[in-house]
Write a structure and sequence with these properties.
Elements: E1 4-5, H1 18-31, H2 51-64, E2 87-90, E3 94-97, E4 100-103, H3 106-113, E5 119-123
Parallel strand pairs: 1-3, 2-5
Antiparallel strand pairs: 3-4
Helix pairs in contact: 1-2
């Protein structure tokens, strides 16, 4: 992989250390569980603020679908830096996280941007 996006806020909103991040995630996932899983769910809406603010809610949501086999994840969020019409998709190959490198599903990115005037590829 050639173009890997570095983590922008590791160490600020979540730990930058792999071991600390794993420990924090394990604790959140252990403490915040729904009474039942959502086997027919096709997606979840999960917050992405710092774990101190949204970790409980995110853990609850991810635990609700923990028994499902997930093949593709689509992350939707606003632009935190500038306004533009439509949405953007990172044109690189992967995202780097404290837990490792996560490759992008380039075929899905191509499908989402094909013939669209509102989705911009090439945003880095």
């Amino acid at each position: 992989m050639k173009d890997i996006r570095e983590p922008a806020v590791a160490g600020m909103f979540y730990p930058s250390s792999e071991s600390k991040l794993k420990s924090e995630l394990a604790l959140l996932l252990d403490l915040y569980k729904p009474e039942e899983t959502l086997n027919d769910a096709i997606g979840i809406v999960s917050p992405h603020a710092g774990y101190i603010y949204s970790g409980k809610t995110a853990a609850f949501a991810y635990n609700a679908i923990s028994q499902k086999t997930i093949t593709t994840i689509v992350i939707i969020s606003p632009s935190h830096r500038e306004y533009f019409p439509g949405i953007s998709i990172y044109s690189g190959d992967a995202y780097k996280t404290p837990l490792g490198v996560v490759p992008l599903n380039k075929q899905m990115c191509d499908k989402l941007t094909a013939n669209s005037k509102l989705i911009f590829a090439g945003i880095n």
